[in-house]
Amino acid sequence: xLRRLTGFTPSGRLHLGxxxxxxxxxxxxxxxxxxxxxxxxxxxxxxxxxxGQLRARTLEQATLLLAAGLDPRRALLYVQSQVxxxxxxxxxxxCVTGYGEAHRMIQFKEKSAAQxxxxxxxxxxxxxxxxxxxxxxxxxxxxxxxxxxxxxxxxDLAVRFNARYGPTFTVPRAVRQQVATRVxxxxxxxxxxxxxxxxxxxxxxxxxxxxxxxxxxxRAVTDSGRTVGYDPVRRPGVANLLEILAACTGGTPxxxxxxxxxxGELKQATADxxxxxxxxxxxxxxxxxxxxxQVREILAxxxxxARARTAGxxxxxxxxxxxx
Length: 324
Ligand code: ATP
Ligand code: MG
Hints:
Layout: E1 3-8, H1 16-29, E2 34-39, H2 51-67, E3 76-79, H3 85-94, H4 99-103, H5 106-113, H6 120-135, E4 140-142, H7 148-165, E5 173-175, H8 210-218, H9 236-249, H10 253-257, H11 263-289, H12 292-321
Parallel strand pairs: 1-2, 2-3, 4-5
Helix pairs in contact: 2-11, 3-6, 3-12, 6-7, 8-11, 9-11
The structure holds adenosine-5'-triphosphate (ATP) and magnesium ion (MG).
């Protein structure tokens, strides 16, 4: 079956957007495709970071993925930095990447413009991402809009390498989600819910207690309309609530809109649905978090498997590049 690769950067805490847009599709797909999931802690080093927090968030995210149903017997789960093949292939791929090519990346331009001190790793980050993908001979990589250019680079590098040094890498394909779930910020519904957002009022964190989830949803920005209707362009706040509700319960946003006569009712129903979805994950999280050594063990085993699976690819690359 097709191999599908997904990375989660422990740069912040997982939110409802991550669950609906990434975690759930991965969990649902783990029987259909050969699933590889890794915590991309090396990517978190490309911007200012706190070491203790990074370590804690890496374990927290791994635990949450397991709590949400990722099954280590069916999917490969590991931490990127525990598999040195990522960094080795990163360097080797840098040697087939043009400086101009890396410098053109829109995300680098945006992120570097926003910082005083720019780490060199922020520039080379898309090459590490290409290494992540090519290392696993991934056929499919689920990507959001912000990652399309980086995936294009990974494809270019694979094609170029194969042409110059002989068939070595599988050329990966970007896949977009069939159900385009894009959860928007609750206080600024024209912006997506994000780990790195300034405030937390607009994000529903997966570990928020149910009463906090309800409070955030009841305070979600709507508009001055009186009736509930689905219009993502003119009424983004209400549309976001309807989309969240639809993603949690099934049904379509426009049909659901007809079942409510006030924003208050819609908000309460959305809170019930989100809490219903998140509570079992939180319960399972609490059980797993009580035994962190078991989660670390799963990650350690995942790393052993990942090293064994990827060593051959790196050896192939070393050989064709002329390394002794
Ligand atoms: P950051 O702000 O650091 O970029 P993020 O919240 O965008 O964090 P990522 O680690 O970049 O999270 O993405 C993890 C996965 O979650 C990706 O597959 C991404 O497409 C998905 N994702 C992120 N935000 C949303 C959202 N608001 N709605 C749906 N899916 C999302
Ligand atoms: Mg992102």
